[in-house]
Amino acid sequence: MTVTQARGVARIHAAFERARAQGRAAFIPFMTAGYPSADAFPAVADALLAHADLMEVGIPYSDPLGDGPTIQRASEQALDGGTSTRRTLELIAALRTRHDTPIVVMTYVNPIYAVGPREFMRLAAEAGVDGLILPDLPPDQDLEIADLAAEYGLAVTFLIAPTSTPARVELVARACTGFLYAVSVTGVTGAREGSALGEVPAMLALARQFATVPVAVGFGVKDAATAAEVARVADGVVVGSAFITAIQRGEDVGALARGIAQGCRIA
């Protein structure tokens, strides 16, 4: 059964609009599904969702080329614990019974093809997923996935980087229906020393010439201070590796999320 398209796209855009009206960039925490274990993941997700405008849940994958060592290790641990693509969607369905916050799934294309594109979209929509982030799918390479996502009410988000040409930025920006994900640095995910901005302001100025959706920035944001830097120029702030590192150190993920969410306030 086809799910109405209004849900995912509209819910995501409404979350950005609410944050903007409150003088904030939208806070978008990331967590790998099934990390640190399938049993512990719901409590971690609850702690993040308590402060999130949207949440990004990563499907564990054995070859995550765009992820740094922190998220790679988290994916390996989740896979070793039995968290599959289908299990990820089951975990999200359970979260949906407790939270109305938009949830987007970050996935490489192989897990989608392993399940089957139409079956994946059906299961994702039924689980309450609102959108997909597709880091290794150029929007001009496989229209089937984007078309199926739209059919099942799922927004799609693609990525740009400082190395993206103006033509590529235009192509990607016009293809996004959820939000545009701008990578702050060239390379893989992970917290970094120093400013999180880099070439972000110029990249966002170019992207906004073409984008009709909000623009979020990720890679390198690790605390309230770096979140504040990004919030001054972006519509949303994505944070992932910092939370996985906090779990590894036995730190309070909820407290870190609260601080970063406060850093996203711009007014």
UniProtKB/TrEMBL annotation:
User: What is this protein's record name?
Assistant: Tryptophan synthase alpha chain
Q: Which Pfam families match?
A: Trp_syntA
Task: Give the catalytic activity.
Answer: (1S,2R)-1-C-(indol-3-yl)glycerol 3-phosphate + L-serine = D-glyceraldehyde 3-phosphate + L-tryptophan + H2O
Q: Which gene encodes it?
A: trpA
What is the superkingdom listed in this entry's lineage?
A: Bacteria
Q: Where is the active site?
A: E56 (proton acceptor), D67 (proton acceptor)
Role this protein plays? The alpha subunit is responsible for the aldol cleavage of indoleglycerol phosphate to indole and glyceraldehyde 3-phosphate.
> What is the enzyme's class at the highest EC level?
lyase
Q: Can you tell me which family this protein belongs to?
A: Belongs to the TrpA family.
Q: Which GO terms describe its molecular function?
A: tryptophan synthase activity
Keywords tagged on the record:
Amino-acid biosynthesis, Aromatic amino acid biosynthesis, Lyase, Tryptophan biosynthesis
Q: Which pathway, per its entry?
A: Amino-acid biosynthesis; L-tryptophan biosynthesis; L-tryptophan from chorismate: step 5/5
The record's listing under Gene3D superfamilies reads: Aldolase class I
List its EC numbers: 4.2.1.20
Q: How does the record describe its quaternary structure?
A: Tetramer of two alpha and two beta chains.
Q: What does the organism's lineage look like at the top?
A: Bacteria, Thermotogati, Deinococcota, Deinococci, Deinococcales
